[in-house]
Amino acid sequence: MTRDHGVADGEAAGGETASGEVPCAAGRLPGIGHLIPLMTRPMPFLQSLADLGPVVRIQLWRRPVHVLTAPELVHRLLVQDAAKTEKGFVFDKARGLLGNGLFISEGAFHLRQRRLLQPAFHRDSIRTYTAVMARQAARAVSRWEPESPLTISERMHELTLDVLLEALFATRLGAGHKARIHQAVPVVLTGFIQRALYPSPLLEKLPVPANRRFDAAVEDLRAVVDDIVAQADRRDGSDSTLLSLLLAARDEQTGRPMAPLQVRDEVVSLLLAGTETAATALSWLCYELACDPDLQDELGEEVRAVASDGTVGWSDLPRLERTGHALSETLRLHTPNWILMRRAVAPLQYAGTRLAPGSEILFSLTALHRDPLRYPDPHRFDPGRWRRRGDHASRKLFMPFAAGPHKCVGETFAWTEMLIIAAAVLARWRIGLATPGRVHETATSATLRPRGPQLRIHRRAGRVPAPERT
Ligand code: HEM
Fold it and tell me: What is the Å distance from ligand 1's center to 407 Cα?
């Protein structure tokens, strides 16, 4: 297994190649380009591109797109070349619909907002949310029904959304608001990728059910968040919710607070960026545990040694070492953000290929993390590889949260939340598959979700008491 494209870390030189010489992926159809392989078998298609070279051309409808397949190049794109890029065509469309929150904004505006939001995601702030995370995890997980089939991705999505809603709003959120957000978020998440791939804006105007559902969900999400922000008191900041921190934040230079519309955009951005990603990772973790009862026992023992009822706190997290390895392996093999993109705003050069301003650039973190040269036997779920020094590529090139100025602002939030939820599950339940066989990956939204999967859970011996109902 050799693949030497001569891509060195920091590589910049190399003969320039006219873009006509950049290899083009097989399977292009007139009019739609590579849309069918990308949508019907996304990961085999994206993984196969590395064999063609470090830069490969594909076409989405009539739009040419360059795919970077080498992790060093992706790291350079995200870090050193960040100032020469913007977020790309998917986000052009998202901005009009979902506002200019951190996940969508770019350039100087993004940097200013990032500085404003950063303190809300500092470790000291996250520490205050561990009680919320543990309470929500215990409440949700203890209500799961034993013996009957459980669609884990739905349960995890509800749970991560509840965690974020409480961290954002605490008691400001009425039951009506909450139900509307729960209804809108999944529809918006699926619709926004699908819309980005429409070949013509005219298709968005067609009065078909998918468009109507999406438009209604976007409108409702904005309306609910507007409502909550309008009711919030700018002066407090004292209840330590994420919303209070956003409202209390002041621009370093002007001393001004964020405009209410911007607060709304930031909240919407967090709801979209911060729920499905963690839910997808947790669903894959449960699936992998269901396939490996020995690993489940090992992790269950680790959790119970730290907290017999599975309720772990901030200071317990470093002791969940094996559970952490299983989560790292989940983020490697099932990296949630299967496809990300950028657009050049200045000339760029990768492995000898010049990319002119305006070039659309795509990369798949999931494909990078399945490279057999970096991760031997890449499709095997092997948490042990995170214990064995030297068995995996340098940490710098393991990028489930990306890198550079757009690196996930919620990384510590996500790790804390995932460990706490995993511990709550492991302490209570023994997980099995409801139906045998491998589960399929589905890439119809921003993350690579497991289709289903249907799991069946059984109580572990030494029952954990149910938490008080809230
Ligand atoms: C396992 C869980 C998560 C994963 C794998 C993940 C992954 C990512 C990735 C790859 C990006 C970069 C996107 C790009 O470069 O285009 C990103 C950005 C972002 N994430 Fe996460 N994320 C997770 C959880 C969260 C959580 C829990 C929150 C919030 C509570 C969050 C909020 C954000 C925001 C606001 C951005 C935009 C940051 C910026 O551009 O400055 N994420 N995330």
Answer: 7
Alpha-helical segments (H) within 170-274: 175-196, 202-205, 209-231, 242-248, 260-273
Parallel/antiparallel/unpaired status of strands 63-68 and 360-363: parallel
Q: What separation in Å is there between the alpha carbon of 176 and the centre of ligand 1? A: 27
Amino acid 190 reads: T
Question: Which residues have C-beta within 8 Å of that of residue 241, sequence separation ≥ 6?
Answer: 167, 168, 169, 170, 172
Take residue 202 and report the two structure tokens written for it.
């005219």
Mutate to test the pocket of ligand 1, among 277, 330, 340, 420 (most ligand atoms within 8 A of CB): 277
Look at ligand 1, atom 40, and give the residue with the nearest C-alpha: 406
Q: How far is the CA of 18 from the centre of ligand 1 (A)?
A: 35
Q: Domain-by-domain residue ranges, the chain?
A: 1-99+338-399, 104-337+402-470
**Residue 217: how many CA atoms within 13 Å on its side-chain side?**
21
The CA distance from 435 to 234, in Å, is 51
Given a cut of 90, whether residue 462 has pLDDT beyond it is no
Question: Which protein residue's CA is at the shortest distance from atom 11 of ligand 1?
Answer: 408
3-state helix, strand, coil in the chain (%, to 5): 55, 10, 35
Please give the CATH architecture assigned to the domain spanning 1-99+338-399: Orthogonal Bundle (1.10)
Residues enclosing ligand 1, CB less than 6 A?
102-103, 114, 164, 269-270, 273-274, 277-278, 281, 336-337, 340, 400-402, 406, 408-410, 413-414
Instruction: Over range 292-320, report the average pLDDT.
Output: 95
* CATH topology agreement for domains 1-99+338-399 and 104-337+402-470: yes
**CA 153 – CA 32 distance, rounded (Å):** 31
Per-residue confidence band for 248, with pLDDT thresholds at 50, 70 and 90: confident
Fold classification of 104-337+402-470 is: Cytochrome p450 (1.10.630)
Mean pLDDT, range 432-452, rounded to an integer: 81
Q: What are the tens digits of pLDDT across the range 258-290?
A: 888 899 999 999 999 999 999 999 999 999 999
Pair of tokens at residue 323: 């559970």
